[in-house]
Write a structure and sequence with these properties.
The chain has about 375 residues and is mainly beta. The protein is about 10% helix and about 35% strand. The strands form four sheets. Strands 4-7-10-13-16-19-22-25-28-31 form a ten-stranded parallel beta sheet, with no helix packed on it. Strands 5-8-11-14-17-20-23-26-29 form a nine-stranded parallel beta sheet, with no helix packed on it. The N terminus is likely disordered.
Length: about 375
């Protein structure tokens, strides 16, 4: 989502400079054929303007002809902000919410306690969370034991520092559901969360209106760490449910994990979960960059990219999965693997791995590209890679 806003700002600002958008009577000394570069990765808090002969910037650096053009730059900056489709202002959050009836909900909710979900759903009625901001020290959105029918769209989720937990670990899942009929997560932004978990049992009717769709999302730094330096294996997405699920799709997502700022296990994990022969679980056109232990210099690491996995027998292990057109960059341990399952088809994927960090130092952990092996059960036959 932030990339859309940044690109939109750059596009409109460069149109102003090059004459394809009107300046509406405002004058500037910035010449045509100039180029605007956004200096902030998340919001436009700095813009530089580069021309063939001069360089203007609002940063505190030595620049040629800056003093003579400061007012022109400021005018251009204000024009760019006016064209930007959002306002830069701090979000105001309310406390945790418990939802007991279906409908459409929009708001900003947070929980600073790992024991309390920021949003807890206690209804099986169709429910939409739209245009919201959610942050939490534990689960952000939780629906357990309610046969969830949940849609989350255009919503941002942020992990807060974890606090002490009781009985069991509570990673900062963006969404966690167990018994469910329908789960759709689209056009969302996740940062420092433990991703999305769909587990236990699929209870839908097998139609396209009751399935799982996880599409068009951006995730930054999937992080499985909980209080006290402990970890709970977490993924961008994990399927871990019983029941055949047709029409399921994980597609067009961008996941970028940075070393020592993230702790992802498998970025995408299909564990003891099934599509159908006529409608396999489709994993396609995802961009996945980075998978590292904490610290990133560790020798041992069990995570990686896209994995079909499970310890069930031939009747209950992962089956009917198709993964294609995925791009995987610089992942530790592996890029795509099949550890268990049958009727699994990986094709037309690309893995690129230098096994080095940005500073040029080498990975100390093992890494690989594509592999297939039945790790658990000889009767659960891996068929296709």
């Amino acid at each position: 989502m932030q990339h859309f806003y940044e690109n939109n700002l750059l596009e409109n600002s460069n149109k102003l400079l090059n004459g394809s958008a009107p300046l509406r009577g405002l004058r500037t000394n910035i010449p045509l054929n100039s180029k605007i570069t956004l200096l902030s990765q998340r919001y436009s808090i700095g813009i530089s303007v580069k021309t063939n002969s001069k360089y203007y910037t609002n940063q505190n650096t030595t620049t040629k002809s800056f003093n003579n053009n400061v007012w022109s730059y400021l005018m251009l900056f204000l024009i760019a902000l006016a064209l930007c489709p959002f306002q830069l202002k701090a979000q105001t959050y309310s406390g945790p919410i418990v939802i007991t009836k279906g409908g459409t909900y929009t708001g900003n909710w947070e929980s600073n306690d790992s024991e309390v979900s920021a949003v807890e759903i206690k209804t099986s009625e169709p429910l939409i969370i739209l245009n919201s901001n959610i942050r939490g020290a534990g689960y952000l959105i939780k629906s357990w034991y309610n046969s969830a029918n949940l849609v989350v769209r255009n919503t941002s989720g942020y992990g807060l520092p974890p606090t002490p937990y009781q009985n069991y670990k509570k990673p900062r899942r963006f969404v966690t559901v167990n018994n469910f009929k329908n789960l759709v997560i689209e056009n969302c932004y996740l940062e420092q969360t433990a991703g999305i978990y769909a587990g236990t049992m699929y209870e839908g009717n097998g139609t396209p209106n009751e399935t799982i769709k996880i599409r068009y999302n951006i995730a930054k730094n999937i992080d499985s760490r909980v209080y006290g330096g402990n970890e709970d294996h977490s993924q961008f997405v994990q399927f871990n449910f019983r029941g055949n699920l047709p029409n399921a799709e994980i597609a067009w997502n961008q996941i970028i994990n940075s070393p020592d700022l993230s702790r992802v296990e498998d970025n995408i994990s299909i564990h003891n979960s099934k599509g159908t022969a006529s409608s396999p679980i489709k994993i396609h056109d995802n961009y996945i960059q980075g998978a590292y232990p904490i610290p990133s210099t560790s020798i041992s690491y069990s995570g990686g990219g896209i994995l079909s996995d499970g310890d069930g027998d031939a009747s209950s292990c992962t089956a009917f999965v198709e993964a294609y057109n995925n791009q995987l960059v610089n992942l530790g341990n592996y890029s795509m693997g099949i550890a268990s399952g049958n009727n699994i088809h990986y094709h037309n994927n690309r893995a690129v791995n230098s096994a080095t960090f940005e500073d040029g130092s080498r990975f100390k952990m093992y890494t690989s590209g594509f592999w297939s092996k039945d790790y658990y059960n000889p009767s659960c036959v891996v068929e296709i890679l």
